[in-house]
Amino acid sequence: MPAAGILSILAGADLSGDLDRVAAAAGLRIAHQSRTLGLDRRAWDAATVIVVDADGARRAAARGMPRRPGIVVACAAVPGEPDYRAAVSVGAQQVLRIPAEDTTLLRVIADAVRAAPRSAATGAVLAVVSGHGGAGGSLFATALAHGAGTALLVDLDRHGPGIDLMLGRENQSGLRWPDIVVQEGGLDWDAVRAALPGDDGVSVLSHRRGSEKEIPPGAVSAVLEAGSRGGATVICDVPRWPGPAGRAALAAADLVVVLGQATVGGAAGSAATARAMRAGNPNVGLVVRGPAPGGLRAEDVAAAAGVPLLAGMRPEPKAAQRLERGALRPRPGGPLGRAAAAVLTAVTRASSP
């Protein structure tokens, strides 16, 4: 399989024929892989773009094929819930109706051809969004960073209190967003990590309090790329109404995690937020936390939102008191720690078939 090629894992002859025409228009070779012969890991790794149908995506996920850029789930009809679930399972960046969205597929292919290949040690990128007020998105983003080992925690809500508060690092010296300058050629992860506040394997890039300067989306992309290429798990705390910086993080994310509460209002807010996030990235999942005063189950909230349930959790004991004392490090066996572990497991990049 040539490096600049398309790997097709499609069952239908019509979809395969449509993809052949798109590949010809893009000037790329295409390899059709038969699922009856099993999935070829070498072809999967070498392809510039992988186009699968929903069944192929589920098979690839079950086989342990690694998440990577350039995966598209193709549908002959309007995408439905099974297609989006399949996309989440394999880490697809797009769910497209073919041939109706051939132009979008051509753009995806062109972008993938221009992009540099990512190393096998690439870290996952997650975007965390509160589904409604008080859902606890920033707290969960911090829990993910603590559970990930080597992590980069990125604050993209410049109107918030600063996620460095969650780590108790608000007074620690180091770079904040206004200090990040991206030169031609991008950023070096080792240099970035050495300049940022943090400890215990977690580096944090927060905004500088009192600064009204917008965060440039190009700088966001460069920071996320540096951390990911350096092998860190990158966790972005994104506001519900993202500006250009937040949208850049959402577009780059392997998984968008929406936080919601098990209440009627929480379910409604989470559903609206999930729909908005899925318009820019099909990889959206939900984490639901209690209590559930009306007996609403986490599964019910996820069903209302129309996205997969990543984890359900009870409230973290004494979370507010622990934050007031300076920092909150989730206990591995506590509700936050277990939910974070479930999400990290869902997005882990497999290194072998």
UniProtKB/TrEMBL annotation:
Q: What is this protein called?
A: Rv3660c-like CheY-like N-terminal domain-containing protein
Origin organism is: Mycolicibacterium fallax
The domain of life for this entry's organism is Bacteria
Gene3D superfamilies linked to this entry: P-loop containing nucleotide triphosphate hydrolases
Entries under SUPFAM superfamilies matching the protein? P-loop containing nucleoside triphosphate hydrolases
Residues forming the Rv3660c-like CheY-like N-terminal domain are 11-117
Upper lineage is: Bacteria, Bacillati, Actinomycetota, Actinomycetes, Mycobacteriales
Q: Which Pfam families match?
A: Rv3660c_N (PF26563)
